[in-house]
């Protein structure tokens, strides 16, 4: 097998993996603090993708620019969802939370279907099909940009949690719920803020994803599943873990696709997930529960 | 055993049973009276929501415009269309079919997908209601010995047979004969039926090229970069894809990004390249791709009438084969009704079995069914995308434009 | 012994509950004579979800182990019984034994790995999804059962019912499912009133406390998985022979797993009647919505599911324990302790 092919595929896997990582980041942030698994994660991402489609269709706004208002919009959606719907469920058992979010997911998918119809939608930016040559390697421009943005957004979020007052308060809630209540933090509001932040990440990821794939209302569940696989491998609740998980899944899919049957590549990703669950259930970079 | 048990129970508790039964029955409308006679009730059942929604809606359009067009053609019959949605799900398909029959449908038309069609076929057969499959390629459906099931669509082996034959014609006509090919297919029901047929039939066709690599990929793939990198590395001169719509777009987009320019890209009989969304998304990159697929005969007068009506009704939609075959299913139903002069299932089925429509929309011979209920006269044509529209280029007797090969490179387009 | 068993099953059950159950059973028994074929097909769906929900309830409702991958057992059993029938002409009544064994073997494997490595809660749920997905993609490539191309059982028009080979008219499947549902109901009652049921509930409420009380939690959780997967296998056999065509994409799909757990959760998790009530409510809700919206002329794809989702969310929001527990109180049917 020619070495350029292996290198090219590895690069593809790495870049795709970073985008996957950004997609999963929101899920991880939310779980890390609120301890709720957002089963409507992928559906929220499709909402963001449709947001980018509308922005481009109506006002020719480049998805990479529209990303900012869309992230803000998704922040609002997440904030409201947590404040109105999920907060009453914080102390309910997991299956209750799961049911609630599964119901929200069903509503989201089908509301999108009602509004936009079943046809695939896309944005036609002029750089969508460009590639960049780096020595013997050929990298897709859109993937390079999105991978770079994924890194930047993760770093920014990481800094926010480590340095800002709000970020520290949120981490305090995550580490010690009772303690946070005692020192007088408004936990419910911080939870809503966190859910908003996680959703904003999803929004940014969705706006970028539009450049890579066409959107249909039914993409949601597949994204949800993929995001799960990634955050579990990387560590539910860990931000660098989400990126690492994304890269590992991206690479394992790319390389198993290259060396074995591409149609079975998701089996390798899931096998990786099962191994991680068994031997390091908190994920590669997760803290022990 | 279970039956005996019921009867005993029934005898013992008649009074309470009737009351309780009525309670259950009361939860849904109770339709016993069936309209007999002059109105043909057609149950149109397609995946109008769920992951196949866009295709189900295309089929629906073909059904919806049929009554007007048929009237204009002089096929007068009072028809009532009853719509149902399978939600892209096999068990819902089954219960919706039950519901349609229950509500008095005299004939069923649908359902685009092989699994759903197979489920509906069982209901139709059980109830003795004729069922005309508009689109579905799994050969098994017409191999079950059904008496009420008819299919006006080629099976996967028929598609592949025509597809491979046309390939040779394309090479002869253009003088471009690739020596190597990569076969790429989605690993779904349709993709695997086609792959099976190609594997079984290719040796018999004495093809000029060698299939150097077969790549099957996840039908829900969101990224085909690895698949294309792998295919590109073989250096094959032709790509033979069996796709759906979304993966067809991903495939071409990735080929452009990876700057891979084989001489020929020709589908042996799959959707994707000729759909409206494909042209809208890929623009100039959609041109020159070839598909060997059953298609409407652009030279038939009836097709022109249908096309006019279609473009009047649906301004932004593309007329393609799903619309065409769905229309023809309606045509078969109405034609049979006019001859049978009855809505009785058995009489209608007999009339459908005797169908002989020479002047119809899709390319190929007379529209008729063999003993198994399969129309074996459908013929594929070669489509080439020219000016971002599908144009018939072969066979010459129905062609509307000239074949152009080898395909100009991605960067050498306007 | 029979008398003892009788006493154990009926202990503390109010008369009125028995009467109502009896009436319901009678209604279900005569229903096929009264309803039209469409409604019969809906009732078959109801029973399918009631039975499968009950099977899932053993694991989650009784023992507190959340499985989101039960489509795995349905699919494995469906494929096993169908493949044995098609390839070796083995009647499904015998094939069911093989199907149950295979489902239980997979259940045992997953349970063993998860419980040995101490995986619980959300992680366990995600592990079950992962195994179901893994198997789905695996079956897409499994040539013996035609991979993603789909596996078809031969079908013809049946005039008589052949119970041995499960070839027959819908009414046969209806009674078969009804028998299964009743049997599962009685079996679960038996389980719950015995030691095993108490141990399960102890584990569900507080696993560590159960452990300190000397309950072998590993063993009893394994038992829950084994019983649940074995029971679910019969749903798979039914599925294969009722629908007659199998696609990995459909049968192992995660949405299938979710579909079948909605009933017990909405009905009332851990209660015996909850899964049955949930199956009725949800199936009739879905059909009712379709009918109503269709009747009102709202023929917009997706609208039904929007309402369906809102109803689900409303129930889980306002009735955290499902519909049955409050309804049971209202009807005065609570079991005396």
Instruction: Find the biggest chain interface.
Output: B-C, 62 and 57 residues
Number of distinct helices of chain C? 15
Reported CATH architecture of chain C: Orthogonal Bundle
Oligomerization category of the chains in this entry: heterotrimer
CATH topology name of chain C, in short, is ABC transporter involved in vitamin B12 uptake, BtuC
Q: Classify the beta-strand content of chain C into a percent band.
A: under 5%
Which bin fits the share of residues in helices of chain C? over 70%
Q: State the total count of DSSP E strands of chain A.
A: 2
Q: Let me know the average pLDDT of chain A.
A: 89
Label the overall shape of chain C: globular
Uncertain residue segments of chain A: none
Q: Report the end-to-end length of chain C measured between terminal Cα atoms.
A: 23 Å
Largest sheet of chain C: 2 strands, antiparallel
Main β-sheet, spatial strand arrangement of chain A: 1-2
Report on the structure:
The complex is a heterotrimer of chains A (289), B (414) and C (337). Chain A has 289 residues and is an all-alpha fold. Chain A is 73% helix and 3% strand. In chain B, the strands form two sheets. A seven-stranded mixed beta sheet of chain B has the order 7-6-8-9-10-11-12, with helices on one face. Chain B has a five-stranded parallel beta sheet with strand order 2-1-3-4-5, sandwiched between helices. Chain B is of the alpha/beta class. Chain B has two domains: 197 residues, Rossmann fold; 171 residues, Rossmann fold, CATH 3.40.50.2300. The longest helix of chain B has 20 residues. Chain C has one domain: ABC transporter involved in vitamin B12 uptake, BtuC (Orthogonal Bundle). A two-stranded antiparallel sheet of chain C has the order 1-2. In chain C, helix 7 packs across helix 8 and helix 13 runs antiparallel to helix 14. The model of chain C has no long low-confidence stretch (mean pLDDT 90). The chains are: A mainly alpha (289), B alpha/beta (414), C mainly alpha (337).
């Amino acid at each position: 097998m020619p070495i350029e092919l292996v290198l090219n595929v590895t690069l593809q896997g790495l870049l795709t993996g970073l985008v996957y990582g950004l997609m999963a980041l929101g899920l991880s942030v939310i779980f890390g603090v609120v301890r709720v698994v957002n089963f409507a994660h992928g559906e929220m991402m499709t909402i963001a993708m449709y947001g980018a489609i509308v922005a481009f269709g109506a006002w020719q706004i480049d998805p990479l620019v529209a990303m900012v208002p869309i992230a803000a919009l998704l922040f609002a959606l997440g904030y409201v969802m947590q404040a109105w719907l999920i907060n009453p469920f914080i102390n309910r058992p997991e299956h209750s939370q799961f049911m609630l979010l599964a119901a929200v997911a069903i509503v989201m998918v089908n509301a999108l279907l009602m509004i936009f119809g079943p046809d695939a939608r896309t944005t036609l930016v002029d750089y969508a099909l460009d590639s960049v040559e780096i020595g013997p390697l050929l990298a897709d421009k859109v993937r390079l940009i999105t991978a770079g943005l994924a890194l930047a957004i993760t770093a920014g979020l990481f800094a926010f949690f480590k340095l800002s007052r709000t970020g520290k308060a949120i981490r305090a809630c995550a580490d010690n719920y009772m303690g946070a209540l005692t020192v007088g933090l408004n936990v419910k509001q911080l939870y809503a803020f966190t859910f908003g932040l996680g959703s904003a990440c999803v929004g940014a990821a969705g706006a970028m994803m539009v450049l890579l794939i066409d959107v249909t209302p039914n993409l949601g569940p597949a994204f949800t599943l993929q995001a799960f696989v990634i955050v579990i491998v990387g560590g539910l609740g860990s931000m660098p873990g989400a990126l690492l998980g994304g890269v590992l899944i991206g690479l394992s899919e790319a390389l198993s696709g290259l060396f074995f049957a591409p149609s079975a590549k998701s089996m390798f990703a899931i096998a990786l997930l099962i191994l991680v669950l068994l031997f390091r259930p908190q994920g590669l970079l997760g803290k022990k529960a | 055993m279970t039956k005996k048990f019921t009867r005993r129970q029934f005898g013992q508790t008649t009074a309470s049973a009737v009351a309780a039964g009525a309670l259950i029955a009361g939860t849904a409308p109770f339709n016993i009276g069936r309209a007999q006679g002059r109105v043909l009730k057609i149950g149109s059942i397609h995946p109008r929501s769920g992951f196949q929604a866009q295709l189900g809606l295309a089929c629906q359009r073909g059904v919806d415009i049929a009554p007007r067009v048929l009237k204009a053609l002089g096929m007068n019959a009072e028809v009532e269309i009853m719509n149902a949605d399978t939600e892209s799900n096999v068990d819902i398909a089954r219960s919706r079919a039950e519901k349609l029959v229950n509500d008095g449908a005299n004939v069923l038309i649908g359902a685009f997908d092989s699994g759903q069609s197979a489920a509906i076929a069982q209901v139709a057969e059980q109830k003795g209601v004729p069922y005309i499959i508009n689109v579905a390629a799994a050969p098994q459906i017409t191999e079950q010995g059904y008496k009420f099931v008819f299919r006006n669509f080629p099976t996967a082996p028929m598609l592949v047979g025509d597809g491979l034959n046309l390939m040779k014609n394309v090479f002869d006509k253009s003088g471009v004969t690739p020596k190597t090919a990569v076969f790429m297919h989605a690993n779904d029901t349709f993709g695997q039926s086609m792959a099976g047929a190609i594997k079984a039939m290719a040796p018999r066709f004495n093809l000029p090229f060698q299939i150097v690599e077969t790549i099957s990929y996840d039908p829900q793939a969101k990224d085909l970069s690895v698949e294309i990198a792998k295919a590109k590395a073989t250096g094959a001169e032709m790509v033979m894809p069996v796709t759906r719509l979304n993966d067809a777009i991903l495939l071409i987009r990735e080929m452009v990004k990876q700057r891979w320019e084989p001489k020929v890209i020709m589908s042996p009989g799959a959707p994707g390249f000729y759909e409206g969304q494909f042209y809208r998304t890929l623009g100039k990159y959609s041109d020159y791709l070839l598909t060997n697929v059953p298609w409407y005969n652009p030279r038939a007068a009836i097709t022109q009438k249908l096309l006019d009506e279609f473009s009047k009704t649906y301004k932004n939609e593309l007329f393609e084969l799903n619309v065409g075959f769905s229309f023809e299913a309606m045509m078969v139903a109405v034609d049979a009704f006019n001859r049978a002069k009855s809505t009785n299932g058995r009489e209608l089925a007999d009339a459908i079995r005797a169908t002989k429509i020479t002047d119809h929309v899709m390319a190929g011979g007379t529209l008729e069914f063999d003993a198994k209920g399969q129309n074996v006269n459908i013929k594929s044509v070669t489509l080439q995308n020219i000016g971002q529209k599908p144009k018939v280029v072969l066979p010459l007797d129905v062609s509307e434009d000239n074949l152009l090969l080898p395909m100009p490179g991605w960067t050498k387009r306007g | 012994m029979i008398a003892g068993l009788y006493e154990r099953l009926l202990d503390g059950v109010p008369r009125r509950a028995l009467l109502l159950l009896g009436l319901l059973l009678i209604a279900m028994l005569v229903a096929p004579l009264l309803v039209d074929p469409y409604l019969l097909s809906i009732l078959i769906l109801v029973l399918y979800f009631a039975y499968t929900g009950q099977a899932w309830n053993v694991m989650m409702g009784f023992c507190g182990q959340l499985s989101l991958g039960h489509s795995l057992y349905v699919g494995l059993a469906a494929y096993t019984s169908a493949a044995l029938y098609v390839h070796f002409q083995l009647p499904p009544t015998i094939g069911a034994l093989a199907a149950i064994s295979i489902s239980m073997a997979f259940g045992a494997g997953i349970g063993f790995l998860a419980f040995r490595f101490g995986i619980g809660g959300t992680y366990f749920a995600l592990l079950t999804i992962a195994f179901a997905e893994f198997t789905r993609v695996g079956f897409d490539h499994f040539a013996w059962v035609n991979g993603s191309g789909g596996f078809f059982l031969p079908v013809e028009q049946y005039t008589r019912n052949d119970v041995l080979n499960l070839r027959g008219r819908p009414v046969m499947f209806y009674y078969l499912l009804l028998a299964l549902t009743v049997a599962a109901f009685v079996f679960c009652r038996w389980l719950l009133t015995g030691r095993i049921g108490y141990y399960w509930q102890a584990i569900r409420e507080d696993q560590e406390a159960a452990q300190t009380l000397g309950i072998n939690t590993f063993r009893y959780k394994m038992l829950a998985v084994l019983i649940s997967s074995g029971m679910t296998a019969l749903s798979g056999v039914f599925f294969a022979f009722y629908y007659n065509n199998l696609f990995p994409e459909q049968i192992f799909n995660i949405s299938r797993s979710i579909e079948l757990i909605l009933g017990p959760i909405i009905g009332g998790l851990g209660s015996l009647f909850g899964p049955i009530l949930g199956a009725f409510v949800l199936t009739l809700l879905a059909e009712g919505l379709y009918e109503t919206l269709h009747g009102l002329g709202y023929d917009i794809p997706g609208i039904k599911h929007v309402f369906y989702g809102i109803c689900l969310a409303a129930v889980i929001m306002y009735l955290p324990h499902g519909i049955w527990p409050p309804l049971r109180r209202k009807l005065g049917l609570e079991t005396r302790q």
